[in-house]
């Protein structure tokens, strides 16, 4: 089974602030813009919805109102996908061809490549094992993680220091390509003051 990453550059704090904001006007915008997407997800997850999971729209409403959330742990995925839709609406999607699809321990492999280049401030595995902001309940899927503006600034500084030291360990070509894509993501964020990255693994 393969997985994928979806990474967005956005104002992390502003996006997190939407959770529990009670912004019904935004809810209506999302329902209109993502109407086909919401219906498609309801069809895809029809079995889970029949078992009591919220619809995609109901999950969005709960996220924007800070609850109520289902007590059933197996329903938490809907709130993660709802938060992903908020990120898609407020952020810009970044190229992810080095990570979609991916299998096995690919994210950890790329993290080792970053560390070999002495880049330690960020980890692509964070997009797999992180959780959405409180009070959203955690879920295994989608994984959700954040690279803050401060982490990104440090990581880019670490990369520049590695370049100055002419520290170039041998890496597999596909790992080099993936690391370069991570650096492109960070440069997109760096070009927008106050912006970071939120990524989802599904």
From TrEMBL:
Pfam short name (any one): DUF7691
InterPro entries per the UniProt record, alphabetical: DUF7691
Start and end residues of each DUF7691 domain: 1-202
Protein name: DUF7691 domain-containing protein
Organism of this sequence: Streptomyces lunalinharesii
């Amino acid at each position: 089974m393969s997985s994928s990453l979806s990474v967005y550059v956005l104002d992390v704090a502003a996006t997190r602030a939407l959770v529990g904001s009670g912004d019904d006007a935004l809810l209506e915008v999302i329902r209109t813009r993502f109407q086909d997407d919401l219906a498609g997800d309801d069809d895809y997850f029809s079995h889970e919805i029949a078992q009591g999971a919220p619809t995609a729209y109901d999950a969005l409403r709960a996220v924007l109102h800070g609850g109520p959330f289902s007590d059933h742990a197996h329903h938490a995925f809907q709130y993660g996908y709802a938060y992903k839709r908020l990120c898609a609406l407020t952020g810009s999607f970044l190229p992810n061809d080095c990570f979609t699809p991916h299998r096995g321990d690919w994210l950890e492999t790329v993290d080792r490549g970053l560390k070999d280049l002495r880049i330690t401030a960020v980890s692509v595995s964070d997009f797999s094992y992180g959780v959405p902001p409180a009070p959203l309940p955690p879920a295994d899927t989608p994984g959700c993680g954040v690279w803050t503006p401060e982490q990104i600034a440090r990581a880019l500084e670490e990369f520049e220091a590695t370049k100055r030291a002419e520290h170039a360990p041998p890496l597999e070509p596909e790992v080099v390509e993936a690391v370069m894509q991570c650096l492109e993501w960070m440069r997109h964020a760096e070009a927008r003051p106050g912006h970071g990255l939120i990524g989802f693994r599904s």
